[in-house]
Amino acid sequence: MKKISTQKHLLTGSSAFAMAALSVAVLPSQAFAAWGTITTAVTASQTATADGQTLDVESPGDLTVAGGPAALNGSKVGTSIVVNAADAAHGIASSGAFSAIQVNGTGTLTSLTNTKGLITGAGTNAANATVFIDGADATTTITNAGSITNTGSGGVAINIGGTHINQVTLNNSGSIISTGGAGSDAIDVADKTGATFTLTNTGTITSDNAGNAIKVAAGGNTVATVNANSGTITGGVVLGANTGSVLNLNGGQIVGKIDGAGTINTTKSYVTNGAIGSTTGFATINIADGTTFDAATNNNTIKATNIYLGTTAGSTLSLGTGAVTGAIDSKTAGTGTLNFKGSQTNAAVIGGTSSLAAINVADGATVVLNANASATTTTVGAGASGVLTLNAGKTLTGAVNINDGGTLNQQTTGIITGPVNGVVANKGTYNVTTAGAFTTNNDIGATTGLAAFTTGDAVTATLTKNIKATKVTVGGGASGTATQTAGLITGNLAIAS
Fold this sequence. Notes:
single chain, mainly beta, 14-stranded parallel sheet, nine-stranded parallel sheet
């Protein structure tokens, strides 16, 4: 392998790699036409060969590119490039609005490795990204253990173009940063039939000022796989419209929205920090057994066709005020837990295909079920408050337990299939509301009595099961009737007036 070394500070030209790789006995201020002008000599310069180049940027050396545009063309520098730097503060820079490393046209680059140094540019659009890859159809692996940055307004740190079919694998243990303001993305990936992009992140990827950390262009052709193994990705992660795209949340954190049409898989507990499926909506979200997917802490919305709580043992989904669009199921009936920790009206079918183990409404939360739900047990409140309302025409399948301070409201044409009990004896309230006919489907308070059971104004109730509550009230003061045809009523019976 050939080597190019720099020991002086600074080198200026149009593309650091292009200048170094194409230099032959370079002298100060020697011009290279479209390649810009070198203003400082390169030590041990040589012609490029087909076996690739290793660029050693020795302390305190920098290789700076200016004057372009210039391209690092893989057909001229070989198929693999390694950038070595003495420390993280030195490396390759584009001093103008041009790429520091650019592969296009007929170039073929299979490997680009940044071992430690800084690769930086100030390009103001994706075409002049700090690192731009769009050579001849090729499979390229980028390994970054240093820093790749862009500071240009609207600029991009790494851009995978769409003129050719690029199949790019990016392994990042360092940092990829775009700081150029609104619209500045850290990583852009073009849409192209046959193209793939695979990212494994254990470092940091950051876009500030409302840019995206990762953006796969719309169109649905490029297949993207993002493995967030550790580290932090700050900014939106937009995976495009291909249903084969996958986001694997393996312990890394994303601070920003997550959007796409494919699949999200979790292997560890995860706290959302932005809307999930905000635009397109994912096909599937799989939450691994024994883990928690927490959308409650930051009150984020979730949009996915199917959300599965575990595979065999079940997992937990926690929601705040952010609603879910889609269906929530287990993959093994009677497993998985859904926690409502904030107030919301839920329109997602819960357990419609495969029931959950538990639905819990937290203290302080007021939840309206505007869709069918099925769980072994639904618990209202955690001992202080909490309200659950089952809307008309909806069915809640399973047992319901009402905690101290909790309230269950059931509209007359709603159906609760299981028994309703207190968690603590003589605590909890069960109200049947809205005008219409109501018939008990199961015992109320038979195991653990409630504080109150009330049928409201204009409710015509037929009581066919056992009822146990400190106070049983018919009507809300204006109207309402109750007819007992079977079962035993235990408690004080009152007719509201």
